[in-house]
Write a structure and sequence with these properties.
The protein has 333 residues and is an alpha+beta fold. Helix content is 35%, strand content 20%. The protein has six helices and seven strands. Strands 1, 2, 3, 4, 5, 6 and 7 form a seven-stranded mixed beta sheet that branches. Strand 6 (304-315) and strand 7 (321-327) form a beta hairpin. The radius of gyration is 27 Å and the shape is globular.
Length: 333
């Protein structure tokens, strides 16, 4: 009987150490993923993170659904590791070798008849497990703190409301492009990010598109969505609406209002203009049953605020159309 208990204790110790290694590895994998997902295309910049702005000081979530081929050498989003590059951590390098050595040493001791705890028997084995567990816990907290991303501070205070700013009815203001750094004031960047030369008329149109597209989506107005979006963006919106219909629900969206917005970057490629903007807006957004109208999720009476990154595309002398949407929420590492 004592022999059976001893064997059980040995197997339990091995399972404990193996499980600790596996769970720590899973936690490290989760830390690589950013929260939220985007869809659509930003041309050759689809898989590059747009510059942060005052409206969206946190990096945008990556675009995960796109018909644009992914290039081999693409700058990673903040909080993500480059492709084929291992992130240093507790279970890479020295930390992994240390744990592997401890486990291998314990197994070797068992094979030689000394037990997992060496010459100190079962109590010695338990003491080693406790000490290893404490060391692993400390090291995981240490490396987790070192992996926390450091976001640059937003430049300047939040812009004043349009009414307080002297009657300007637009929620957009021409910022120092790419930095969200101001209410104008004659500031310019040493390396401007606006290669298009956006004017107030363009910004007013972006604000209108935000309201029109959200309203059309809530009304399941496919004709309006096709007119205001690129074919690729429309395909993803139609897919979401189709999934809602299959599940017997409908996404109601109303009272859309832009609260703050600024330009992250604007550029030209292949005869087309692109403009990526950060927009914080309020809306009444809820999910209801299609037949009864019963609330499933969200709030159908009070507005909530959302911050997203929208990219618009204009070909030649045509109209601006929605090309991509990205979220801004980040999962903690």
């Amino acid at each position: 009987m004592p022999g059976a208990v001893s064997r059980f204790a040995k197997f339990a110790a091995i399972a404990f150490l193996t499980g600790t290694t596996v769970f720590a590895s899973i936690g490290d994998a989760d830390a690589r993923r950013a929260g939220g997902s985007g869809f659509g295309s930003r041309g050759t910049r689809t898989f590059q993170a747009p510059p942060v702005t005052r409206t969206a000081p946190a990096p945008a979530a990556p675009i995960e659904r796109s018909m644009t081929p992914r290039p081999q050498n693409t700058a990673p989003y903040a909080g993500q590791s480059p492709v084929n590059t291992q992130r240093p951590g507790l279970f890479n390098g020295f930390g992994r070798s240390m744990i592997g050595g401890l486990v291998a040493g314990g197994l070797l001791g068992m094979l030689l008849g000394h037990g997992f705890g060496g010459g100190f028997g079962f109590l010695g084995m338990l003491l080693q497990i406790v000490l290893i567990g404490i060391a692993i816990s400390f090291a995981m907290r240490f490396f987790a703190n070192r992996r926390q991303p450091a976001y640059g501070p937003a430049a300047g205070p939040a812009p004043h409301s349009p009414i307080a700013a002297g009657g300007n009815t637009s929620s957009f203001r021409i910022p120092s492009i790419g930095t969200g750094a101001g209410d104008g004031g004659g500031q310019t960047n040493s390396k401007p990010g606006d290669e298009v030369g956006l004017g107030q008329g363009d910004l007013d149109r972006f604000e209108q598109l935000l309201t029109e597209i959200q309203t059309a989506y809530g009304a399941e107005d496919y004709a309006t969505l096709r007119r205001l979006t690129t074919p690729e963006a429309m395909s993803y919106l139609a897919e979401e609406l189709g999934e809602n219909a299959t599940n017997g629900v409908r996404n109601k969206v109303s009272s859309v209002k832009l609260l703050q917005g600024d330009v992250a970057e604007a550029w030209r490629e292949d005869g087309a203009d692109y403009a990526t903007l950060a927009m914080r807006y309020s809306s009444i957004d809820s999910l209801v049953e299609r037949g009864s109208g019963k609330l499933v999720s969200g709030d159908d009476s009070r507005p909530t605020e959302t911050t997203e990154i929208w990219t618009f595309l204009r070909k030649g002398a045509g109209e601006w159309k929605l090309a991509a949407i990205q979220g801004t929420e980040q999962r903690a590492a």
